[in-house]
Write a structure and sequence with these properties.
Helices cover 23% and strands 44% of the residues. Strands 1, 2, 3, 4, 5, 6 and 7 form a 7-stranded mixed beta sheet that branches. The mean pLDDT is 92. Strand 6 and strand 7 form a beta hairpin. The chain is globular and about 45 Å long.
Length: 154
């Protein structure tokens, strides 16, 4: 059984990698054939698959990080995630479905900190070779207004 403590530990490690600029580790939290989307609550309610970010493989996530490091030009920033307790929807020995609320503060190079995004992760976890991985993570943001500086993964 994939339990609540395992999901909490996974989410803590996930946020730690992003918040501490260990972005090259971020794709390793996903299966090879994963789905990662960032979308708005309105789009999700309407069943609209389009999102702000869409990736359907770990390779696409790796490409995104490579682009952030080598090609994209954006104002230097970092995040601080505050995560709520996952709500486990379903769980068995090798899979789990859960929703986890999040708040993300963005810290700009000059020191300004602002609340950047709130919402919930809608996740499907799998256990592969003893390791918990995300088969799917949809970050459903509460606001329909998205800052154009969405550079880092949520």
């Amino acid at each position: 059984m994939i339990d609540l403590l395992a999901l909490c530990a996974f989410n803590a490690a996930y946020a730690h990698a992003i918040d501490n600029d260990q972005l090259e580790k971020w794709p390793d939290f996903f299966t090879e054939d994963c789905l990662y989307r960032i979308t708005s609550a309105d789009n999700e309610r309407e069943g609209l698959p389009a999102g702000i970010v869409y990736a359907d493989s770990r390779a696409m996530l790796q490409d995104r990080i490579a682009a952030l490091r080598e090609a994209n030009i954006y104002e230097r920033q970092s995040y601080r995630h505050l995560l709520g307790m996952p709500l486990v929807i379903a769980s068995d020995s090798d899979t789990a479905t859960a929703c986890t609320p999040f708040m993300v503060a963005r810290i700009m190079l000059h020191g300004e900190t602002r609340l950047f995004a709130t919402g919930e992760y809608r996740d499907r976890f799998v256990r592969r070779e003893g390791q918990l991985l995300l088969a799917e993570r949809v970050a459903v943001c509460d606001s329909t207004v998205t800052d154009t500086l969405l550079a880092l993964p949520l």
